[in-house]
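User: For a benchmark we're assembling, each entry needs the component sequences followed by a predicted structure for the full assembly. Here are entry 17's components. Please fill in the structure.
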Amino acid sequence: MAQDINITIVDRAGEQHLVQAPTDMNMNLMELVRSYELAPEGTIGICGGMAMCASCQCYVNSQHSLPEKSEEEEAMLSEAFNVRENSRLGCQIPLTEDLEGLIVSLAPEE
Amino acid sequence: MIQTDILIIGAGPTGLFAVFEAGLLQLKCHIIDALPMPGGQLSELYPKKPIYDIPGFPEVLAGDLVDNLMEQIKPFEPGFTLGERAETIEKQADGSFIVTTDKGTAHHTKIVAIAGGLGSFEPKKPPIEGLERLEDKGVAYMIKDPEVYRDQKVLIAGGGDSALDWSIFLAEVASEVTLVHRRNEFRGALDSVEKVQELKNMGKIKLITPAEIVGVHGADRLTAVDILMAGHKEVITQEVDAFIPLFGLSPKLGPIANWGIEIEKNAIVVDNTLDYMTNVPGIYAIGDVNTYPGKLKLILCGFHEATLMCQSAYQRIFPEKRYVMKYTTVGGVTGFDGSKKEAPKAVVKKIE
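Assistant: Structure for entry 17:
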């Protein structure tokens, strides 16, 4: 059985949560945040994970190597607010074993 | 005033299908939606995306599903109030409701069915200090009347279709059009991108990329904006009469949150899966906008909820009538437009 990984998520109020994330359920980072209810329903993952809104924008604070941004993610981030160098859309980051120890913080609600 | 049996708020798939189920019960529907076209999220967010979990459709594009639903409900002649947001609701002495939009259109209805999805789509406002103060004083998030910008110096920010299309349109109206986008690539339709390129080459559009607007100036009216080029530290201040940020739309629950309906986690609580009525009798909530134990935000669940809601609405409107559900294979579909669809009669012929 695939091992769960540990991910630290800083919510929009600045509170830090260390959560266990499954790597064998085809989940992404946005869904992980929703499964632990770290952001109110209706404020994250609005488009359902199609990179068509930026409600799951987060800042990656650790040095993990992540999958490259797709053209859609790049385009969406270019129109989102509060975007930084380390901004990503959580829905575009699948949970894999390489992400053990990942630290992200959620971007403010638009 | 618009009169109807069921007033549906939200023209997404759930709201549209409710028209069909209501029509089978001979109930008239009218739909309000803040977007200018029907379809809700499916039209606004992902018209070209395939959906795979609509029963009977192995694969259907979201836009096609909306077209099909519009075709399916056509015989029931639904009324539409599009491009307006339902703002207020007043309960009448006889138990009916008057719902009025932000533009003042009033609707008198026996039943209200909120099929509002994620809420009404509203323009995203960039976090620029002092921006709100200048709203309608040079700053606008949507263009209602392009003539307002005649002979003005206009600056548009954004990289999608609406930013491109309005830049093209206003190039002929405004005295000066500047388009600012955070990167060099634009996301819009190819011919829009090419047209902007052409207008830029002709000097009719000034393109500033990669850059963003970081500040606004003006006391009573907008006078100038601060532009920050990517990688630079110094801002460029440009005099403008109008600043139009076009960064797409995002859904907000909006005024229905103040209708006295119980809300939890940005959704309307319906504590039953019997008919999806809210805590206010006569007001129902169906589709993505509602929540109850076990709720799944799926189009197919919205269809089911719409169907049960209509049965309950019928009983509320005609408490004295006994009703037995009839299959469309048996009863066919009789439209309000006089059309009649039914299964062809079986041929009965003696064999001799």
